[in-house]
Amino acid sequence: MLNIDGLVTSYPDWRVSFSATLPKGEITALIGPSGAGKSTLLGMIAGFVPVESGTLSFDGEDLLPLGPAERPVTTLFQDHNLFLHLSVFDNIAIGLPPGLRLSPAQQAQVKQAAERVGLGDMLARLPEQLSGGQQQRVGLARALVRGKPLLLLDEPFSALDPALRREMLAEVARLACEQGITVLMVSHNPEDAQLIADQVLFVDEGRIALQGTPDILQNSDHPGLLRYLGQ
Fold it and tell me: Which pTM does this prediction carry?
């Protein structure tokens, strides 16, 4: 379980404060208007954004003293950061601890991650030989090979066409279920939350204004949510 309690950071003209609980092994969608603080919250959890006060723990472990590399967290961004001169295999392997050579066990991990996202027969290809969706799958496989229990998705599929985006979301849901991964997913599209999320956090003006099942997108009369949905 990810516990966020009074997590605060400030900018010269803006302050955010977040509190929420994310059940272990579930998918939580983080929605809200642009500039509300969604990506800031992910950055605080991942360790990229300084935290002024509050607590952050995962399965009882205090995450705040830990650096980004030490946290049980993997983040997948819209820019999947593939190295164009490296094969699919090598791009996935970057997710493993650095070393002079991969051990046989690590090589097996890479191949298994590739197979899980449907790239098992494309390990020798370069990124330029892949479609946009396949490139996103490489990024997802790299996240999986790290073996960390908390996956943060900062709109990694927003540039894909609707059908491919739904396919990738379904892939995330399947993999999260199979491996018991806790997922926090930022999206500007409420449909994404309704497709795969177990719960929804609505962020408004630097705080979590609503938390509940995806049904709140249809049943809540919160003014900020209604404005966001254009109702």
Answer: 0.88
Task: List, in order of start, the domains of the chain with CATH numbers.
Answer: 2-72+148-229 (3.40.50.300)
CA distance 93 to 77: 18
Tokens 């929420």 found at: 20
User: In which residue ranges of the chain is pLDDT below 50?
Assistant: none
Convert the pLDDT of each residue in 116-128 to its tens digit.
Answer: 888 999 999 999 9
Per the CB < 8 A criterion, the answer to whether 189 and 223 are in contact is no
Q: Which amino acid is at 126?
A: L
Q: Quick count: other Cβ atoms within 10 Å of Cβ 220?
A: 17
